[in-house]
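Re: beginner question about structure tokens

> Can someone show what the tokenized structure looks like for a real chain? I only ever see the sequence side.

Sure, here's an example I had lying around. Input first:
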Amino acid sequence: MKPQFDYNHATDEAYLELRDQAQRAMEQYNKLSQKSQAAYKEGDKAEAKEYSTQSKKYLLEARQYNEKAVNYVFYQNNLDSSQSELDLHGLYVKEAEWIVSRTIYKFVYERKPLLQVIVGKGIHSQNHVAKLKPAIENLCNLYNLPHYINSKNAGVLCIDLKTVQIQNLPQEWSNISYVEFAEDKPLSKPAQNYYTQQAQPHYSSNQQHNNTSSSNYYQQQPNYHQSNSDSSGSAILVQVVKALIKCFM
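And the corresponding structure tokens:
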């Protein structure tokens, strides 16, 4: 009988080594961060900055090891997946969000209608509480992506991409690395949202300008009529003067 494949790679030495290296780097990062904070509280800003700089190097190293682990486990777990499936076993929440966001962008670009994300049921999670499923659902809600749970498998989240437009997704999703994604920097706003928020005020401003121009036009009209009235009055006065002159001749 063929042994069951371990999608969580609990005994995979290559995978575990990458995670261990990432963990060791994170421990160094935490130690140096604490030293930096202590030095800052004592008033030694130069030493605090030095410790902070060193800690950031270890943080980057940890993320790089985790990215290698993600690529390794993702490749292994998806060898037998269909073209529309995405297996997230063995990934932490942030890593799963990175994989899903990049895949969504790729699928929309290639006009693939459906992405089936295997999020699991939380059986192997701490206290058996699912973490991946709510995280990916939140990602879908954030970008208005229609989604639903597979009626035949509660561990599969289906993302309906038929009506999703590429301009409504952050452009960074096309090629962002895990190291960059883990920094939680603000992503660019989708083009449609930008149009809604930015173009409308410009339209209102132009409309206000047009209304002002019209108002100025109508305000000028009384001056025009007043000028005509003055001209008519002058003509009448001339005629009266001529009539008086004839009377005295």
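Each token stands for a local structural state, so reading them left to right follows the chain. The beta strands are 85-87, 114-118, 147-149, 156-160.
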